[in-house]
Design goal:
The protein contains 3 helices and 8 strands. The protein is α/β, with parallel strands linked by helices. A hairpin with a 2-residue loop joins strand 2 and strand 3.
């Protein structure tokens, strides 16, 4: 059985929130990635301009409940799936971008699909990007190489 484990902390140096998402399969813990959202105005760091391409796993396993591990080691689910957490993280990043930034979204399951071509992050572009991200649904199996290829 696979489960997600989400841990977060705020870096004292930068005051930027950092989220670690780990996956546990049959008792073996494997850290998948660390998500660090772009800088915010509150952090006192100038936001860098750029192009952000999200490559998101939409395989059926992403419908698994996302669980938080408490300080006591208990695993608690708040009703969100792993894909819900991924969508929220992407939308948080998109909302922090401005008209000089661009975003694209690629999903992968059995194969990879570009669901959002490069889009400028003006007000309309952000709304379109976030609606596209929100429309992602779990599909079939995982082909990681399709997402990376």
């Amino acid at each position: 059985m696979s489960k997600a484990c989400i841990r977060g902390h705020t870096s004292p140096a930068t005051k930027i929130f950092i989220m670690d998402l780990g996956f546990v399969k049959d008792g073996d813990s494997t850290l998948m990635f660390t998500l660090t959202p772009p800088q915010t105005k509150d952090a006192g760091i100038e936001v860098s301009k750029g192009c952000y391409c999200f490559v998101i796993d939409v395989s059926g396993s992403m419908n698994t409940p996302a669980e938080v591990t408490t300080d006591d080691g208990d695993r608690v689910s708040h009703g969100w799936s792993q894909l819900d957490i991924s969508k929220h993280a992407c939308n948080t990043i998109v909302s922090s971008l401005d008209e000089n930034d661009y975003v694209a979204v690629i999903t992968y399951s059995d194969s990879a699909k570009v669901i959002l071509e490069w889009s400028r992050c003006d007000a309309g572009g952000k709304l379109h990007a976030m609606a596209t991200i929100d429309s992602m649904r779990p599909e079939r199996s995982t082909n990681l190489m399709a997402g990376l290829g």
